[in-house]
Structure formats: structure tokens, C-alpha cells
């Protein structure tokens, strides 16, 4: 998703920028942790497009100058909020068997994305924060333990990440409507085009018989079965 600002080089990426740390300001309760928590609350309430540094400063009851001492740009703020939200997905115990470990971390990752509807749309940003990398490290470690290496490891990692991200983006988009009438109209629309889409209109896919959570879990099981049986 675009954050409303044009992409630039590595200097635009918080995690790749080399900057000396700023000393903490004296006599102020404002911390980076408070800023990130407030940013996530603002994002949950209003979304990424409506987030501004001015609104965030108002929520924190500080001046914009105080805010900019800790966070240089809105881009940096979004990167920090994204990584913090991903950190809500628990890291499973490293001694789990690979299939159980992978299933647990990917279910948690999706849940974290759906808990914050703005998050999937920001995943076009470089995912280099410590929480994202820790979970990617866990995924790769489980895949290595299952016997994958080289290009098979790289492609499996990307497949799992893209599966979770894509599913979360689709589910988050539909959940924005939160209106049974919308789903009923969508189903009626497809059924009305039954001659054009005979399989889609009769497969039950549009009936709402299965929840998003059920479909994701079943799909994830199929992906893991195929990946791990081939290793």
C-alpha cells in the first residue's frame, strides 16, 4: 500500500538508515514506546491514510516538536508500528516439530494482521524490523529442520509469507464491510451470472458456509502438507 509518499532509496528505510542515536530528552514522560502505542491506537481507529504527526501529537498531548525528537517522519512511524504489531504474534517454542511450529507462527501472524486492519496494507514496506525478522528466522529454522535448503528453502519461505499476507489482505478487505447485506448482494450477483461462472456459483464458495478462519486453516494445512512431504 502507498503511504502517500513516493518511494526513495535505502535512506528512506528506517531499518537501513545509519543515524547516531539521539540522547533522551530530560524532564519529559514521552518515550518511543508511548509514541508507538499511541500510533497503533490512532491507526486502529482511523487507518494509515488519516494518520498525521499532528494528530498523533494531539493524542499524546505533546507538541509536534517533541514528537519529532523521537520519530523523524511518518514513514518511520509506520515502520515502527508495523513491526510492533507483528510482534503481537507469539513465537512458538523452538523445540516444536516443524509442522506444528510453522502452523502456530503463521496462524499468529495472520491474527495479528487482522487485529489491526491497517497492517496488511502496509506490507509493501521493507519488512526488516526485529519482530518481522525474528518470525521469518523462526519460519526458516523450522523449514531447515524439515530438510529444506538452498532454493527450496528460499521459495518455501516466500510461499508461506505470501500465502499469509495475501489471505490477511483479502480477509481484512472484506471485513471492512462488516455488513451481511453486502455479502448477500455479492452472492446474488454471482448466482445471477451462473451461466458465465457455473462452478463458482454452485461450489458453495459464496454461501458463507465456511468462515475465513476455517478456510485459512484448511488452506494452510494443505500448503504445509505439500511443502513438508516434498522435503
What CATH architecture of the largest domain would you give? Answer: Orthogonal Bundle
Biggest sheet architecture? none
Structural class: mainly alpha
Distance between the termini: 34 Å
CATH homologous superfamily designation of the largest domain: Tetracycline Repressor, domain 2
Integer-rounded radius of gyration: 21 Å
Strand content: under 5%
- Count of DSSP strands: 0
Tell me the number of structural domains.
2
Uncertain runs are 1-8
Give the helix tally.
10
Helix content: 55-70%
Q: Give the helices and strands as they follow along the chain.
A: HHHHHHHHHH
CATH topology of the largest domain: Tetracycline Repressor, domain 2
Mean pLDDT: 84
| CATH classification class of the largest domain | Mainly Alpha
Shape: flat
Outline of this structure?
The chain is mainly alpha-helical. It has helices spanning 32-46, 53-60, 64-70, 74-86, 98-115, 130-145, 150-175, 180-191, 198-202, 212-229.
Description:
60% of the residues lie in helices and 0% in strands. The chain has 231 residues and is mainly α. Helix 6 crosses helix 7. It is flat, with a radius of gyration of 21 Å. It starts with 31 loop residues before the first helix and ends with a helix.
